[in-house]
Amino acid sequence: MKHSRALRRSALILAPVLALAALSGCSSASTSDAGAAGTSNAAASGEWSYTDDTGKTVTLDHQPENVASYADYALGLLSYGIDPVAIFGRVDVASDERFAPYDISKTAIVGNSYGEIDLEKLAETAPDLIITGIYPTDREGTLDLTGPLYGLADTEQQAQLEKIAPVVAIEVGGKGIDVINSLNRLSESLGASADTVAAAKTKYDAAAADLTAATAENPIEITQMYADADGIYVTKTADEPETELYASLGVTFTNKNPDGYYYWDIYSWENAGQVMSGDVLLVNVEGFQKDDLLAQATFASDKALVAGQIHPWNQAALDYASQAAHMTELASIIRDSKKL
């Protein structure tokens, strides 16, 4: 079976990197003061300082104007009117439906596969700051600061990025609302207005209330999963910030073994019958879909699969706008489904 961390990341394809000169006018320093994470400061002189979720402090002589970002966090920036100069992602950015509401025609797409980043093209955009993420290695929230950040192939590639511009990370673990708030703090430090964030929160709050109402109207069990030739991987509710968020709003997820291995509850196809309790299947878009699952003899009789209550599911970015849309979609699925 695959390791849970490897599953969250797509297969890593290592590419040669280019030696790039560091840009002037910036500096970074590490701090062990975890309590300072997520803070920023802009002095009267124009100096900008931000402490990210790893405790690393980046200081520039000006507020960053050119920002490059991993796709998941670029979505949040775009929702607040901040246009990244470059985006790199896990899948093809141009066909990623999550970007449909935004005009990214003038944004350089510098990576369309996990760990593959065109460093020369990225450098040409002259970013002041690069944003990516970091996932905990366990449910206690341990951050591995010796390995590469999320979206990067390895520490060598990360070092090359840091020669182009300082890199900050958003922690994607624990409570979903904490991840959203981390993105909000960073966005506001980059110039997002408080009014814009507040307006997004209003829509988010309305969607959250509607999702809670939908679960009360139709209290069904939802299995959120990824499947491939090796078996079924069911997301552990408390270990994924998005499912943690939805559970806090009343959604019931299949969660048979909340302890033990982090993030995934793993079943071989021989043991698939142990997880066939959900009324609805939310199936990760990067794995097996309906026809693939029907071809698995040990899973073909799953009640949700037989009833056609199966939906391709692409996890949304953890920002107000993305989550408002995703919660609205989930509320509709819940209302349209039957208790089996």
Automatic annotation (TrEMBL):
Gene Ontology cellular-component annotations: outer membrane-bounded periplasmic space
Fe/B12 periplasmic-binding domain residues: 82-311
Main location as per UniProt: other
Gene Ontology biological process terms, A to Z: iron coordination entity transport
Keywords assigned by UniProt, alphabetized: Signal, Transport
Signal peptide interval: 1-21
Domain of life: Bacteria
InterPro entries named in the record: ABC_transptr_periplasmic_BD, Bact_iron-sidero_bind
Compartments it resides in: Cell envelope
Residues in coiled coil: none
PANTHER family registered for this protein in UniProt: FERRIC ENTEROBACTIN-BINDING PERIPLASMIC PROTEIN FEPB, IRON III DICITRATE-BINDING PERIPLASMIC PROTEIN
Family: Belongs to the bacterial solute-binding protein 8 family.
Protein's name in the database: Fe/B12 periplasmic-binding domain-containing protein
